[in-house]
Design brief:
Blueprint lengths: L2 H33 L7 H8 L20 H16 L4 H13 L7 H13 L19 H7 L4 H13 L5 H18 L4 H14 L16 H14 L3 H9 L5 H16 L6 H6 L2 H17 L5
């Protein structure tokens, strides 16, 4: 193989990784925006109102605009901005972004996230104390930028996943889900098979049987175990990006978060071409533009170093 051939292959690999990284972050935001209007509704209530929710409707308890994102995407953007502005992983910078975001009076924020950020403001400490009641999904929902920033270094992924989680959620099951989901994201971005991603989940379930999702019990609450089970159930049984997101958000419950998390994974796995153009047109242009820019920068700063 000539040097020219090697350079061409490297360019193709770079393009594919960057495209998958962008589609992961955009897919995350799309899942958030699609699911937000039906957050806290049951599957039966969604069916009665929409039949099957497939479009960016807006509304819901937050009275959102069609395509508007929530705290899931906003907190993920906080992490991405902090890393890109610092030029490397910087937990203090992440915490500073969270504090500034809270002061901006966001449209929504979970109780555990609010308490954790207020703890940073009051004490300056970058780790919330362990709490058996902090097993929510608020740390898991912020993992896309962490996975992008640590591509090529699973050990660094594990460390950064735990650090960002403990700013607000210091819970063993939350930590485990964050690490597993982060690895799944990285494998998907690298072009690995669903079989390889499933093996990673099997490792998690072997260590923490609570995460077993077969049979699936249909719970899509804010509990991190329920969230992870819902994401795995729909990701592994669905065959394309849109089907994954639609099936997940129509489950109801914490639909913006489950939709966002499965959207990040499905976006990485299926790629940009499968992101529905009609959904992308609804997504806030400034949000979409910033996500694409930050995703590229995060991969460039990662150990993979494109």
């Amino acid at each position: 193989m000539t040097t020219r051939d090697e350079n061409a292959l490297a360019a193709v690999a770079r393009h594919e990784v960057l495209s998958s990284a962008r589609s992961s972050f955009l897919g995350f935001a799309l899942g958030d925006a699609l699911g937000a209007p039906v957050e806290f509704m049951t599957a039966g209530e969604i069916k009665a109102k929409y039949g099957v929710l497939r479009e960016m409707t807006g509304g819901g308890w937050l009275r959102l605009r069609p395509g508007q994102v929530t705290d899931d995407t906003e907190m993920s953007l906080c992490i991405a901005r902090a890393v890109c502005r610092s030029g490397s992983w910087d937990l203090a910078a992440v915490a500073g972004q969270f504090v500034a975001w809270l002061k901006s009076r966001p449209i929504d924020i979970g109780d555990t996230c609010r308490r954790g950020i207020r703890n940073i403001m009051l004490t300056g400490r970058l780790e919330s104390p362990p709490n058996q009641w902090d097993g929510g999904n608020g740390a898991l929902m912020r993992m896309v930028p962490v996975a992008l920033a640590t591509l090529g270094r699973p050990d660094l992924l594990d460390r950064c996943a735990g650090e960002q989680a403990h700013l607000t959620h210091n819970h063993q099951l939350s930590d485990a889900a964050c690490r597993c989901y982060g690895r799944m994201l990285q494998f998907a971005i690298e072009g690995r098979s669903k079989y390889r991603l499933r093996r990673e989940v099997e490792r998690l379930v072997a260590e923490y049987p609570a995460f077993g999702f077969e049979p699936y019990h249909g719970l899509a609450t804010g509990y991190v175990v329920d969230t992870f089970q819902t994401v795995c159930h729909h990701f592994f049984r669905c065959r394309d990006f849109e089907e994954c997101i639609v099936a997940t958000v129509n489950q109801g419950g914490d639909a913006d978060t489950t939709g966002a998390i499965v959207g990040g994974l499905a976006g990485a796995f299926y790629g940009f071409e499968q992101l529905p153009s009609r959904w992308l047109r609804k997504l806030d242009r400034n949000v979409a533009r910033e996500i694409a820019d930050l995703a590229t920068k995060l991969v460039g700063l990662s150990p993979m170093g494109f």
